[in-house]
UniProtKB/TrEMBL annotation:
InterPro entries: Homeodomain-like_sf, HTH_TetR, Tet_transcr_reg_TetR-rel_C_sf, TetR_C_31. The keyword Cell cycle does not apply. PROSITE patterns: HTH_TETR_2. Residues 12-72 form the HTH tetR-type domain. This is Transcriptional regulator, TetR family. It comes from the Bacteria. Residues 35-54 bind DNA. GO terms for molecular function: DNA binding. Keywords: DNA-binding, Transcription, Transcription regulation. It comes from Glycomyces sambucus. Pfam families: TetR_C_31, TetR_N. PANTHER family: HTH-TYPE TRANSCRIPTIONAL REPRESSOR NEMR, TRANSCRIPTIONAL REGULATORY PROTEIN.
Length: 182
C-alpha cells in the first residue's frame, strides 16, 4: 500500500518499545507525568502509534506495570529457586532486604502501589505479584511464613529507601530469622 508518504515499514517491536518507554517515563516523571506524547517521544514512535496499540493511557500503564511485576517476580523466583534449602533461602532474603535497591525499580514499585491503592483495576497486578512472591517463598517455607516474609521484604525495602538514617543490616537479618524460626 503506497501513500504520498511512501510504503509503510513494518515495525514488529514497536508495541514492546512503547511499553518499555512507558516504564522509563513513569520512573522519571511518575504516573501523573506519563502521557501519550511523552511515551511516544521516549519510544521514538509517532504519536498515532499510541492509540493504534492501546485504547488509552490506562491500558498502557496496566500492561507496562504487568511487565514490570512479572520481571521482578521472575528475578525473585530465580533467586529462590537457586537456594539449595531454607538456610540458603533465608540468606537470599536477607541479601535482598539489606542490599541497596535499584532506584528505578523502587520508584516503579511505589508508583504501582500508589496507583493500585487509588485504582482498583490495578490491584490485580499487585495481587498477582504478591501471589508469585509467596509461591517462590513456599519453595522453602510454609505458606504462613511465606506471607509474613513477603510483607517483611516489602516493608523493609520501603523503610530502607525512605529512611534518612542508614538501616542496620543486622536488624533486618534478625527480623527475617524471627519470622522463619518462630
Amino acid at each position: 500500500m503506497n501513500s504520498e508518504r511512501g510504503p509503510r515499514r513494518p515495525d514488529p517491536g514497536r508495541r514492546d518499545r512503547i511499553i518499555d518507554a512507558c516504564l522509563d517515563v513513569v520512573a522519571e516523571a511518575g504516573v501523573a507525568g506519563a502521557s501519550h506524547r511523552k511515551v511516544a517521544a521516549a519510544a521514538g514512535v509517532p504519536l498515532g502509534s499510541m492509540t493504534y496499540h492501546f485504547h488509552g493511557i490506562g491500558e498502557l500503564l496496566h500492561e507496562a506495570f504487568a511487565r514490570f511485576g512479572t520481571a521482578e517476580s521472575a528475578a525473585f523466583d530465580a533467586a529462590m529457586a537457586a537456594a539449595a534449602g531454607p538456610a540458603e533461602a533465608e540468606a537470599v532474603i536477607v541479601g535482598i532486604v539489606t542490599a541497596p535497591a535499584d532506584p528505578r525499580n523502587l520508584v516503579l514499585a511505589h508508583e504501582l502501589y500508589t496507583l493500585a491503592a487509588r485504582e482498583p483495576a490495578f490491584r490485580d497486578l499487585t495481587n498477582e505479584w504478591m501471589a508469585r512472591s509467596r509461591a517462590s517463598l513456599e519453595r522453602h517455607f510454609d505458606p504462613e511464613a511465606a506471607r509474613m516474609v513477603d510483607a517483611l521484604i516489602e516493608g523493609l525495602t520501603i523503610h530502607a529507601s525512605l529512611d534518612t538514617e542508614p538501616q542496620d543490616p543486622a536488624v533486618a537479618a534478625e527480623a527475617v530469622r524471627r519470622i522463619l524460626r518462630r
